[in-house]
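Page 47, continued from p. 46.
Same chain as before, 670 aa.
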Amino acid sequence: MKHLTMEEIVVTDTAVTDPAATVVGVKTIEKGRSTTIPDVLENEAGIDISRKALVGDTGDTLKIRGLSGNRIMLNIDGRSVNAAGVQGGYFVDWSTIPLDNIEKVEVIYGGGSVKYGNNAGGGVINVITKKPTEKPTVSMYGNFGAGDHISDMQNYRVTHTYKVGPIGYSIAGSYQHADEYLWNNDYEAKNIAAKLYVDMPFRGEMTLGMQYTDVDRGFALSNRLSSKINDPNYDVKRNDAYPLSSGDSFSPGAGNVTTAGPGANWNKTKYLLDFGYKQPIGTALVEFKAYKNHEDRHEKNYSANWINSSYSNGKLVLDRTVKSDRSYGGSLELFVPIRDHEIAIGAERKIIATGGQDVDYVDTAYGVKGTVADSNGDSAHMWGIYLQDSWSVTDSFLLTPGVRYDLYKGPTSEGGQLEDYGVSFSLTGTYKLTDSDVVTASVYRKYLTPSAPDAAWWSDGYGQYYTKELKLERNNAIEMAYQHSFSPKDYLKLSAYHYMIDDYISRFSRTDGRGCYNIDRVRLTGVSLEGATEPLPWVALRGNVTYQKSKKKGDSMDPAQVSDELEYLPEWKGNAGVDFRLPYAATFSVKERVVGITKTVQSYTEKGTTTYKRLQLSPHATTDIELRVPVTQHGELSVYCENLLDHHYQERYGYALPGRIVGASAKVSF
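Result:
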């Protein structure tokens, strides 16, 4: 027996379930145009997506129960791949996590497990790759799509796994490309990953892994005659060839030189290196992991005549290399079964490090705020230890208590050095009422440590906006879940949560500066109902609906209380899908996604005064269809249409998303 709040729901082409965290299998990953993990998870209960662009958005696009960015831990085979997040807050750049060689994706909602540490308050996403077997496997996949103002969207993947005697390996590669939809926002990514598995003496296993990603991304230009939301020209296009949309800028903002002009782009290269060792000792298991990140962004910006009228379009104004991630760390865990107990003990050490930046050229005459110059990197140090016990009290009752200690030491800055610690705890119980009914309840306290950008922004605003130190965020949470299984393929699950977050960490950026501070209190409450059924042998139905509400109090940076809610959190959202099994093993799928009103706060500056306005995005609904047909024993062809009704909508205020997209894909596996 496992906890409903921590287990797995298997989502495949048929409605097969096993209560727990959501698991998305490879068949779902390869549906439609999916190129990133947010694409795969957007139809899951409790998941919210807010993208500026359909392909290549490197920003903070995914929320789990209203929490995002540095509150979500992303692991690949148990190895954390969260970035340092400096100069842009790119904690999880989903564009650099391709869907190569993936067996399944697990989503753990909330922070109820003490195993996961300082940045897992919102949840955990575990990407699990395929392990090699003694039978060699090869898989090739290709996808091509086009649509509203997008003439070319490509996605290709190839994987190979094999094990010979004690040595196994997996190799995967992918290529993605998308023409610009927003002005100048084209995208291209190449990825290669390799992993070596070695059987060691005494049933041990050693793993060595490497992933390399190369991403070229064009920065969207503002296609508005005015950037002020109160100006009538805000809704007038500058270039009729592209949709009306706001633009991008390089981070941190430094005036004109970081505002995207024609040709603005970056090339991001990223290496992920990891080592692992598992060693059984009797009935116990010891596991050690170590990792190293290395990421650079080569950024170039060019002049725009409408930004500085004394310049023509296309002159180089900024050329720099941002050494955005040099993080490394490791963990040691021991798992020991003792009669009715499964004891887990672990310790981890993280150094969240950056390398600063090298500025090759900056045109100060074009317009610069502050200083754009070479800089050295810095680092934050984190230590964590945990103890967790899964106790099978009876055959029908599972109790899991846990405790965790986290110590945080930030970089030294003008505001001083941030240093703090937190003791998290959790207690989760699951009771099997009948063979068909299971209920789980969980209470916990979870601490969140500041990220590297949090510490840097806090230092930048210290003395100007506030004089308080940045505290650890604390979430006192209650979660409950109940599931009734009518049959192995028919179930209903009701989940609810209430988060009482004190000292909520929040960043802001204004025309006169930026900062990071604690909001006194944030409350998040949500309920979701999900289920699946097969009423007929040739029909499978699935769906979910989510209600969620946020409330904040004591926001010192919003004294006028323009908003008492968190941004981009719709109160209502729902998803529904149906799969029809057709002759010759073909399937036809229909999927509907509905998102309610979403609110945000935008600002504009006029005559030295900054005004903030509470705005909202209209509700939207999208319908996707797909036909999949097997071709021989080893192949499959599919055709699909996303946003069938050509509905134009926004997930991020000011950024238009495309309408109807039509495409086809092919897969061969042997």
